[in-house]
Amino acid sequence: GDSVTQMEGPVTLSEEAFLTINCTYTATGYPSLFWYVQYPGEGLQLLLKATKADDKGSNKGFEATYRKETTSFHLEKGSVQVSDSAVYFCALSDFGGYQKVTFGIGTKLQVIP
Amino acid sequence: NAGVTQTPKFQVLKTGQSMTLQCAQDMNHEYMSWYRQDPGMGLRLIHYSVGAGITDQGEVPNGYNVSRSTTEDFPLRLLSAAPSQTSVYFCATGNQPQHFGDGTRLSIL
Q1: According to the model, what pLDDT value does residue A99 have?
Q2: Using the beta-carbon criterion (under 8 Å), do B100 and A101 form an inter-chain contact?
Q3: Are B87 and B45 within 8 A, CB to CB?
Q4: Eight-state DSSP code of residue B65
Q5: Dihedral angle over CA of B37, A71, A33, A60, nearest 10
Q6: Mind telling me how many Å the CA of B17 is from chain A's nearest CA?
Q7: What are the distances in angstroms from CA A88 to CA A6, A8, A74, A106, B55?
Q8: pLDDT, tens digit, 9 for 90 and up, residues A28-66
Q9: Which residue intervals of chain B are DSSP H helices?
């Protein structure tokens, strides 16, 4: 079945540092890939997405590129801020049946001033 | 502009009690789902629905029931609460992407 692998963290960075959160996936078809962000006390919200190989999703300075050859969708940001502290979830949605969404376990990011 | 509304936000139950977690959406999405979020486990799918009158089991359905009588509402019922059901529960609508409510934090004593 489908699966998403990401480190749990926590990842602690100083403000303005470069961020990479790795995400790799296993899927039988050609899934769409997503990054969601969860701020404390809130639900998940979509950060960015990519629907086919070599697509780059971007939003709020975050980027991720759909790499079919390495089955990866790593999240990057050039300069993190304290306000980026949150939990980040990688997810995929396959086109089989009801388009079930599979989530990774989430990576907690803490940015310190 | 409510989106997905979950009630209650917090609840404490005793073992063996039953309760219903409410989820309402105004986005006219056919697909709705319930997840539980536990430390180190990520999000696990409990039940989902692809439209009014249609529900199916997800990854961890035991101890939970759902129904979908309208497009807008998708309640989750705990039949006889157990401490293992202590968790944060999220309702979501749509699937590419999903839209989440703010969650219900449930403690079973």
Answers
A1: 62
A2: no
A3: no
A4: E
A5: 90
A6: 25
A7: 10, 9, 11, 5, 29
A8: 878 999 999 999 888 999 999 999 999 999 999 999 999
A9: none
Q: Kindly identify which residue of chain B lies nearest to residue A42, measuring between CA atoms.
A: B102
Instruction: Determine the Cα–Cα distance for residues A78 and A62; give it in Å rounded to an integer.
Output: 8
Q: Which two tokens stand for residue A29?
A: 């078809």
Q: Is B41 on the interface with A (CB under 8 A)?
A: yes
Residue pair A99/A1 in contact by the 8 Å Cβ criterion: no
CB contact under 8 A, A105 and B40: yes
Q: Which member of A42, A93, A106 has the closest CB to residue B95?
A: A93
Q: How far apart are CA B72 and CA B69, in angstroms?
A: 9
- The whole-angstrom distance between B105's CA and the closest CA on chain A is 10
Q: pLDDT digit of tens for each residue in chain B (109 aa)?
A: 679 999 999 999 999 999 999 999 999 999 999 999 998 888 999 999 999 999 999 989 999 999 999 999 999 999 999 999 999 999 999 877 889 999 999 999 9
CA A37 to chain centre: 8
